[in-house]
Write the structure tokens for this entry.
Amino acid sequence: MMGSVAGQAGKEPTDVLVVVVEYNRPDLTEQLLSSLDGDWPVVLVRTSSCLGPKSCRCETIDRPDNPGYAEAVNEGLYLGLARGFQFFFICNNDVLLEPGTIAALREALVQHPEVGAVSPIITFYPAIDRVWFAGGTLWGDMLVTRHPGYTGRVKTYPPLFPTEYLSGCALMVRRAVLERVGLMPEGYFMYMEDVEWSLKIRRAGWTLAILGKPLVHHVASASSGGVEGRLLNPLSARLTARNAWIVRRRLHLGFSFYIGQFLIRLPYNLLLSLVARRPDVALAYVKGLWEGMRC
């Protein structure tokens, strides 16, 4: 029998652990916890330097040094592995869940042992009729991360369909993946760690899947102070440009990576910055590109 998480004493044991990462906005955390149905054990990893009182609704791990998203996620995963959990739902604190989300994702993994990790359709919030993530493509080693359908209307999807990568915003992964592939790759601070992890999971023989139901709603970019539309903010621009090179180095991506970065991603992001009259974003992207080439 699996160990219980603080605050869940006396509840029925479960094989799913919910791992939530919070950077500021404890109000969003409370909204997320309120949206959880059932008695799913929750571990909250708080990474802000200014921490308030701990919630009595879940177990809390404090990392005021803000080590990065993957490092925070892994704090919860280490704990869950030690306690024998079989499935792990990972999310930011800036999401809301529809009733039955955790159970539906767990059932997808149980019924499809070939799937290593799964995510539902993720929408914007409060515009829950608009798609934030419905699967992603990478264009092979070019590593051009695309979200097909982004900002479009939610539509009818297949019950379960494959994807090239999953967003770390909200996904469920099985224990066997963690034991074979490892935990979420560290060293990125944020952005692209989910891409490296996705590629590793697929290289190990599992598929990645999207559950075709809009079950998670994302308060877009609340954790990074994002701007509207497809334009990145300066921090996001710098880190996404830099971190692609970390993926290339670790996974030994081929020559097409350079085509993707210099002939597709760089012009695309510079054009968006120019149209939006945001030279700060353009400069941040170029700075990140330079940092990535040197790392």
In short: Helices lie at 26-35, 69-82, 101-111, 175-181, 193-203, 234-251, 256-275, 279-294. Strands lie at 16-22, 42-46, 59-62, 87-92, 95-97, 115-124, 131-133, 160-162, 170-174, 207-218. The chain has two domains: 16-218, 234-294. The CA atoms of residues 165 and 199 lie 7 Å apart.
